[in-house]
Amino acid sequence: MFASALRPVLRSAARPTCLLRAGPKPLAKVTAIRFASTTRYTTDHEWVTFDTDSNIGTVGITDYAQKALGDVVFVELPSVGSEIAQGDAIGAVESVKAASDIYAPVAGVVEEINEALNDTPSLLNKKPESDGWLARIKLTDPAEFEALLSDEAYKAHCEGQAEDH
């Protein structure tokens, strides 16, 4: 999806910590439990978070992708109700540096799009993996989700791209 000469900048995978107070004792540092992620990634730098209760996947571009693109100035989104196959182009992102297609990480029907991106495409730069989501897709085959890259595999993919340069 993006020029291979772009350098990855990945978020730290440090474990979160919290402080607990137990009576008059001093504060103790405790490592929080990390839960299994429901987010998967493509090698083209899209992510999808799958809600098994609703069979809906929320799709967006990764932080790596938005950094590679630069300041996003326009986002083209799919139409609600569109039937899409895995790998189909479902939209595009234009920035001051480049334009790039967005590919469906899973097949299904577009249930909702992020209308906020029409007025504020910079949400993709500010919060690409939360408020900057692109579309919500009702999956036709949840097994496609499971076949995508895990968080660890995606990080390794990005590190591999950095080593190629």
Describe the fold and architecture.
There is one protein chain. The chain is of the alpha+beta class and 165 residues long. Helix content is 20%, strand content 32%. It is built from 5 helices and 11 strands. It has helices at residues 63-69, 116-119, 123-126, 142-146, 151-163, and strands at residues 17-20, 28-31, 39-41, 46-51, 56-61, 72-76, 83-84, 89-95, 99-103, 108-113, 135-139. It has a 6-stranded antiparallel beta sheet with strand order 3-4-5-11-10-7. A 3-stranded antiparallel beta sheet has the order 6-8-9. β8 (89-95) and β9 form a beta hairpin. The protein starts with 16 loop residues before the first strand and ends with a helix. Its cofactor is (R)-lipoate.
Instruction: Work out the helix count.
Output: 5
For the record, give the distance between the C-alpha atoms at the N and C termini, rounded to a whole number. Answer: 16 Å
Order of helices and strands: EEEEEHEEEEEHHEHH
Q: What best-fitting shape do the alpha-carbon axes yield?
A: globular
Average pLDDT value?
Answer: 81
User: Could you list the spans in which at least 5 consecutive residues all have pLDDT below 50?
Assistant: 1-37
Number of β-strand runs: 11
Q: What value does the Rg take, in angstroms? A: 18 Å
- Tell me the strand percentage band: 25-35%
Q: Quaternary arrangement of the chains shown?
A: single chain
Percent helix, as a range, is 10-25%
Biggest pleated sheet: 6 strands, antiparallel
Strand numbers in spatial order across the main sheet: 3-4-5-11-10-7
Derived structural class: alpha+beta
